[in-house]
Specification:
This protein is of the alpha+beta class. It has 2 domains: 42 residues, no CATH class; 221 residues, 3-Layer(aba) Sandwich (Extracellular Endonuclease, Chain A). Helices cover 15% and strands 24% of the residues. The chain is built from 6 helices and 14 strands. The strands form 4 sheets. An 8-stranded mixed β-sheet has the order 1-2-3-4-7-12-13-14, with helices on both faces. Strands 5-6 form a two-stranded antiparallel sheet. A two-stranded antiparallel sheet has the order 8-9. Helix 6 links the parallel strand 13 and strand 14.
Length: 289
Amino acid sequence: MRLNGKVLLSGVSLAVGAALGAGLTVWRFQGKCGDEGGLGILSIHAFTQLSPAAGLTRFGLPGLTQVKSRESHVLSYDPRLRGPAWVLEHLTPERLQGGADRQYSEFMEDGSVHPYHRASNSDYKGSGFDRGHLAAAANHKWNQKAMDETFLLSNVYPQNPNLNQNSWNNLEKYCRSLAKKNKNVYICTGPLFLPRMEPDGKMYVRYQVIGANNVAVPTHFFKVVVLEKLSGEIELRSYIMPNCPVDDKIPLDRFLVPIESIERAAGLLFVPNILKSTNNLKAITAGGK
């Protein structure tokens, strides 16, 4: 299934605000009060029809989830982290073949993200981190544009070089091998920011940020693999890897976790259209159970 279009939904900016340290900024409507022009993609008239509290939205909403559709992947962008909350890919044998070459691709800022909320290449310079793809470039060899879009920094997080170039790369290769044996393979990849106990005995979520744009460095990464078998059976394989050096001799099965653990940590629900108690859904965890 080819994904067309660019931005499905982007955050709606505030149309009124105060200048910091410089007095009040005065904004003027370009049209009559209640006109839709200039107030973003959401219609004030539509809100008036939906809710008696519509007056709250007359200047626009501070933000909405930013879901972006690329040539060959879809992502939900989190502007606070300067990276995606999740990235979704569809792998087939056909998509893994073609003439696209990563030597023609360059990492670049995502112009569809507001300058306040996007990462730049300069953030990574001297940071000690790789620019780690969530939608892997090699998954999209069928089309050069599709591969190029995986190099947008909205698809990237700071990743430990040892992890990126070894165990994480092995997991990506394994996912591609699964695409050759199944009807369809869907992959959802994202960051995790997991709590840990500090010396005072309390749990904290702490993570590093890099660069002038304060790009978040995830503590872990997840990858949820949904296999649609030729028999019609659906199989889930869910992985978590820490964002630190990982011995690439450790079997990938050691990183399998119950899908519920990722859903709780990430605030997401995977395969919500399928009841996980049904007989045609098989969840693979460590030990193959």
